Amino acid sequence: MSLSRGRLIAIAVAVLLLGLIIKLPARVAYHMAGIPGVAVGGLQGSVWNGSAKEASLGSVYLRDISWRLKPAGLFGGSLSYHVEATPASGFLQTDVSVGTSGSVHLTDLQAALPLAMFAPAVGLDGLAGNASAQMERLEIVDGLAVAADGVLQVADLVVPEVSRASLGGYKAEFFTQEDGVVASIEDTDGVVDLAGSVQLSADRQFLFIAQVVAKNSTPQALRQRLEFLPANDRDQREIRLEGSL
Fold first, then answer.
1. pLDDT value at residue 2
2. CB 153 within 8 A of CB 140
3. Do 40 and 15 touch, CB atoms closer than 8 A?
4. Residue 46: which pLDDT band, with cuts at 50, 70 and 90?
5. What is the value of pTM for the model shown?
6. Beta bridge partners of 91
7. Mind giving me the DSSP string for 180-217?
8. Contact between residue 141 and residue 103 where contact means Cβ atoms under 8 Å apart
9. Sequence-distant (≥ 6) Cβ neighbours of residue 127 within 8 angstroms
10. pLDDT band at residue 75, thresholds of 50, 70 and 90?
11. CA–CA separation, 106 vs 54, rounded Å?
């Protein structure tokens, strides 16, 4: 079936516009986008293939950022890039796709990041430690993770509201379900024996439940705080947190 003259013209215009967009200098595209709260410096290259010396979004600071367009994503109606960057310490690399609805899809995410960079976002002053992530998939819509599959590990965790000393290491394995995201959590070398889970639903409700048992290495101050938690017949203490994001 032959295409009408009008449709051929529309396709030609679309191809022309796409060519102009992907060849657009990165500096020009950044100023045109005018994204609030985002500061980028040292831009070079184009929307297709470029780099930036540094960028910040709130408390999140990255440097030595580079991106490369993945043309195959255009056939699915999204802009898809391979992105690499360096935080204050560690590294980050992932494939990023931005859908027409504004959803952000991350695939093959590998990162090592300091937890301190997320402290303002989660409202935990003094949060510290080192996180490493290997995520097959992470989808974010309106700031909410609606899909997540992969592993997140934290070493030398410090949460001042719990203890100013290191709480050790923990591991979370994420899975996507029909009604949201769940994760199983366990200690790796933590100062407490912990096993629990997190549930995050599409309506932004979250639930964290864990069973905790003190170890010989548990600081006395933390051990005393655990005494106030309800215990079962195996002397496991339950931590339960729930709310809305």
1. 47
2. no
3. no
4. confident
5. 0.80
6. 112
7. EEEEEEEESS-SEEEEEEEEEETTSEEEEEEEEEE-TT
8. yes
9. 115, 116, 118, 119, 158, 159, 160
10. low
11. 20
Dihedral angle sign, alpha carbons of residues 140, 146, 152, 156: positive
Mean per-residue pLDDT, 46-64: 85
Instruction: Give residues with Cβ within 8 angstroms of 185, minimum separation 6.
Output: 170, 171, 172, 194, 195, 196, 197, 198, 210
β-bridge partners, 74: none
SS3 content of the chain, % helix, strand, coil (to 5): 20, 55, 30
Structure-model confidence comparison of residues 76 and 213, the more confident one: 213
Residues ≥6 apart with Cβ < 8 Å to 79: 69, 73, 97, 98
Kindly report the number of other CB atoms within 10 A of residue 99's CB atom.
16
Dist. CA 109–CA 124, nearest whole Å: 25
Q: Are 139 and 103 in contact (CB under 8 A)?
A: yes
Q: How far apart are CA 104 and CA 78, in angstroms?
A: 10
Chain segment 157-168, per-residue pLDDT in tens: 998 888 888 999
Secondary structure element (H or E) that encloses residue 122, with its range: helix 119-122
Task: Give the span between the Cα atoms of 232 and 105, in whole angstroms.
Answer: 41
Letter for the amino acid at 168?
G
Identify the pLDDT of residue 28: 66
- Residue 39: helix, strand or coil by DSSP? strand
- Residue 81 and residue 69 in contact, taking contact as beta carbons nearer than 8 Å: yes
DSSP string, 129-163: EEEEEEEEEEEEETTEEEEEEEEEEEEEEEBTTTB
Q: Is 73 helix (H, G, I), strand (E, B) or coil?
A: helix
Whether the CB-CB separation of 167 and 208 falls below 8 Å is answered with: no
